[in-house]
């Protein structure tokens, strides 16, 4: 079985049982909904106890359970063709340079981690149509200046 086939099997069971992602995440628990859903969609891995819970919930075999615990090949062809995913891509392409400038001015020369990362979303009522509120929080990781010597900073933190 390929990982994509397991994802389709999981989605078929979700549809057949008319489960919501909320129900599935509540049943598996242990980590953020983003991690659970991402794993079931083939983009993340579940630690062994959570893979076991998912396997029990979905009635998966031991081999399929083990696949949920494997590190997947992540990502997708770019740019994405799905309109919702494309809008995220567009937000980064259009606003990314400004976000980069603000982060660098505040923190220094580095990146925002997508590994040491938190994500949350909420639905906000609005008179012109409900809004999606996204909250992302990633650890700042400064670039390391290899071979730094004679008082030169080793890391790219904002200089005083």
What does this structure look like?
The protein has 160 residues and is α+β, with helices and mostly antiparallel strands. The protein folds into two domains: 3-68, 434 Repressor (Amino-terminal Domain), CATH 1.10.260.40; 83-142, Cyanate lyase, C-terminal domain (Cyanate Lyase, Chain: A, domain 2), CATH 3.30.1160.10. The chain contains six helices and two strands. Strands 1-2 form a two-stranded antiparallel sheet. α4 (48-58) crosses α5. The radius of gyration is 20 Å and the shape is globular. The termini are far apart.
Beta-strand residue fraction: 15-25%
Unreliable segments (pLDDT under 50, ≥5 consecutive)?
A: none
- Lateral strand order in the biggest sheet: 1-2
How far is the first residue's CA from the last residue's CA?
55 Å
Name the CATH superfamily classification of the largest domain: lambda repressor-like DNA-binding domains
Topology:
Blueprint: H1 3-17, H2 21-28, H3 33-40, H4 48-58, H5 62-68, H6 83-107, E1 110-124, E2 131-142
Short descriptors:
single chain, 160 residues, alpha+beta, 434 Repressor (Amino-terminal Domain), Cyanate Lyase, Chain: A, domain 2, 2 domains, two-stranded antiparallel ribbon, 2 strands, globular
Please summarize what this structure is.
By secondary structure, the protein is of the alpha+beta class. The chain has 6 helices and 2 strands; from the N terminus they run ααααααββ.
């Amino acid at each position: 079985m390929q990982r994509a086939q397991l994802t389709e099997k999981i989605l078929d069971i979700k549809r057949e049982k008319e489960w919501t992602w909320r129900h599935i995440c509540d049943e598996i628990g242990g980590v953020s909904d983003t991690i659970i859903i991402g794993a079931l969609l083939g983009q993340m891995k579940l630690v062994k106890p959570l893979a076991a819970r998912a396997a029990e919930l979905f009635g998966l075999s031991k081999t399929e359970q083990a696949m949920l615990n494997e590190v997947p090949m992540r990502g997708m062809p770019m740019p994405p063709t799905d309109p919702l995913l494309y809008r995220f891509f567009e937000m980064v392409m259009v606003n990314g340079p400004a976000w980069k400038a603000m982060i660098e001015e505040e923190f220094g020369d580095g990146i925002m981690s997508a590994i040491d990362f938190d994500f949350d979303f909420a639905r906000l009522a609005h008179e012109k149509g409900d809004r999606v509120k996204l909250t992302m929080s990633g650890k700042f990781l400064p670039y390391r200046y290899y071979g730094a010597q004679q008082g030169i900073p080793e890391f790219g933190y904002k200089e005083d």
